[in-house]
Write a structure and sequence with these properties.
mainly beta; five-stranded antiparallel beta sheet; 1 helix; 9% helix; globular
Length: 82
């Protein structure tokens, strides 16, 4: 399997029921060729509200478009989403 490039962001989500913005904070890695593309692609994530900050880029043996992660105390993939 070929390593894929991901860009990790801290984001706000929208409450799926009430549609309240700024509902929850998530760490999400987006599969993309560049940070500019990743910033566009993350808008397709269900319940995406806005980007708080860019954290880092990394490579993974994954196929999912989005990876929900924990970044502290160690990096860990929690959930995958296409």
């Amino acid at each position: 399997m070929t390593m894929k490039k991901y860009f990790n962001f801290e984001i706000y989500t929208i409450d799926p029921i009430t549609k309240t913005t700024g509902w929850d904070i998530k760490m999400v890695s987006v599969k993309a060729d560049s940070i500019e593309t990743a910033r566009k692609e993350i808008k397709d994530l269900p319940n995406f509200d806005c980007i708080i900050l860019f954290n880092f880029s990394h490579e993974e043996n994954e196929t999912a478009r989005f990876l929900f992660t924990e970044n502290y105390p160690i990096f860990k993939i929690i959930e995958r989403c296409d």
